Amino acid sequence: xxxxxxxxxxxxxxxxxxxxxxxxxxxxxxxxxxxxxxxxxxxxxxxxxxxxxxxxxxxxxxxxxxxxxxxxxxxxxxxxxxxxxxxxxxxxxxxxxxxxxxxxxxxxxxxxxxxxxxxxxxxxxxxxxxxxxxxxxxxxxxxxxxxxxxxxxxxxxxxxxxxxxxxxxxxxxxxxxxxxxxxxxxxxxxxxxxxxxxxxxxxxxxxxxxxxxxxxxxxxxxxxxxxxxxxxxxxxxxxxxxxxxxxxxxxxxxxxxxxxxxxxxxxxxxxxxxxxxxxxxxxxxxxxxxxxxxxxxxxxxxxxxx
Length: 306
Prior knowledge:
alpha/beta; TIM Barrel; globular
């Protein structure tokens, strides 16, 4: 972009999101605005990007004031009664991502798993389809789904990131690319060292944001932040690590996601209440529930804003 281009400061853009839309405000305008906001969120500070699994949870998280959302492949899969493998789900996932992106006024990042293809060409084709859904960002991981060889060779993984980068750039959409190193999740013998090596390579390949799910300690988070600086990193907290948002921010993380944790929190309440009903014939699992009126009023309000 040229040096003379005028950009609005982030607070001004966020203020625009809260204003009523004029009738001539197009879907393309809204998407462009969300992508601009999302990119600027990664320039400084730290923000929480929680993970809804359906339209209702997305709209509730927006209601709470979060600045951006990210889909969760696991949360979505569980809602469909499926395991989180991604196999044969590209069309379902694209429809889901598009539904979430169009349901809220804040930016949405797509958990796009491994791009639903083993080849760079296939990744590029699917990334172009994902960009077309209106997302502000998307992530590509390096896990193969093969237990015998769980990670793509780093050279091939880099080519996949390059292909995603080129697909985004050719669209001129300004979508943010996150590259993920899955070393901790697949049981690599030296997960931190391998994650850093891969993330550095993905940064050189054009990733905007870097992400190594499975970091459990302050030391590990700090090591990744320092190794890939000045690129922003995403830290996932999907269980109680004993760290607060402010503590993770102080380590240098730019954004914090929660993966399937909120979906599993909902499943936990459902399972406990259902098991009590099935096993004991009691309704004690319904104690302390949010009221029908509260949820109905919330979604009536969000419907009126469509």
